[in-house]
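lol forgot to send this yesterday, sorry. struct tokens for the thing we talked abt
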């Protein structure tokens, strides 16, 4: 694939004395994308390339300096968090901190909605898990990031739907509903997959419903996304217009897992593209090859935020090896050349 992006030389978000690893930036458009939140890893057990590692996290404020880099500030505090997390907890699960934020502004009310992952990992006794890990899609709302109040999760995992994370927000369709996308999970025998499912959202601040699976790696012969699929941000029409009721979006994909010496070894995570029919909740196309792989990445390039700079141009932010955030310049005209070949 032709190189369709320009990788910034510097890191957009670097670690500091408090954190060795940072990832998953989300920016507030009302600050001209100069302020937002980022996920900071407070401790890491294991290797991110091997199944079973555990990252404990907090969400922290970030602010852009004069050079366009983001500086990590204090921890984000959300009112009512303790009560909500306590209500979701039980003796068999361990809450390891909020993860992977997404910001959405309600234009009607001018309220800021923050979505995030609430992971409850199953505890172990004598090396064996006594419960399956549950991953909920959490929610908080306020006039800004400093006044957020946590509500019940918009999607609660259970025995049938073990995972809801990595939100991709869709426009309202003709039925006045958003058919958003989330990463979910399933397994076939000993093989686990991350899949993409519809999240039916009549109201962005209240309970949603799980919808159909719209992408399952096992059902497609796409090697770069053979094991794990996760939806990323969708591009606005001001960046690229691909037709009525459809948007071009980012798909984060990982190669199929491998089992070596009894351990599950993850494949390489790359950034790709997909076309989403948000009227009907269908993915029409996924790029046959990855779109972005960071030059310094050993295992992971994972996109979380797109910022439109001028019509047809923008900046995509992705984290590399779950350790720092990089920026990439994109031009719609170059991406159209790829789309014309599909």
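and heres what i got for the seq, position by position
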């Amino acid at each position: 694939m032709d190189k369709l992006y320009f990788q910034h030389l510097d890191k957009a978000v670097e670690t500091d004395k408090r954190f060795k690893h940072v990832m998953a930036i989300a920016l507030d458009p009302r600050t001209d994308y100069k302020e937002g939140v980022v996920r900071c890893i407070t401790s890491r057990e294991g290797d991110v390339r091997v199944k079973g590692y555990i990252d404990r996290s907090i969400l922290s404020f970030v602010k852009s300096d004069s050079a366009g880099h983001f500086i990590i500030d204090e921890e984000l505090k959300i009112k009512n968090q303790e009560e909500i997390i306590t209500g979701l907890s039980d003796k068999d699960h361990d809450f390891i901190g909020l993860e992977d934020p997404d910001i959405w502004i309600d234009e009607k009310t001018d309220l800021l909605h923050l979505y995030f992952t609430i992971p409850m990992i199953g505890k172990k006794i004598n090396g064996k898990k006594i419960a399956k890990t549950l991953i909920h899609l959490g929610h908080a709302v306020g006039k800004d990031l400093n006044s957020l109040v946590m509500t019940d999760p918009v999607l609660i995992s259970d025995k049938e739907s073990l995972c809801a994370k990595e939100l991709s927000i869709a426009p309202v369709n003709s039925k006045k509903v958003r058919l958003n996308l989330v990463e979910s999970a399933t397994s076939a025998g000993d093989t686990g997959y991350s899949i993409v499912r519809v999240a039916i959202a009549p109201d962005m601040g209240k309970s949603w419903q799980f919808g159909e699976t719209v992408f399952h790696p096992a059902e497609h012969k796409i090697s770069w996304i053979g094991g794990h699929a996760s939806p990323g941000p969708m591009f606005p029409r001001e960046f690229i217009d691909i037709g009525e009721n459809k948007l071009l979006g980012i798909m984060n994909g990982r190669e199929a897992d491998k089992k070596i010496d009894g351990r599950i070894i993850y494949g390489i995570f790359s950034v790709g593209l997909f076309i989403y029919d948000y009227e009907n909740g269908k993915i029409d196309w996924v790029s046959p090859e990855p779109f972005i792989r960071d030059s310094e990445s050993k295992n992971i390039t994972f996109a979380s935020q797109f910022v439109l700079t001028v019509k047809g141009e923008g900046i995509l932010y992705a984290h590399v090896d779950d350790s720092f955030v990089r920026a990439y310049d994109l031009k719609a005209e170059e991406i159209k050349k790829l789309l014309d070949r599909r």
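The mean pLDDT is 94. anyway ping me if u want another try
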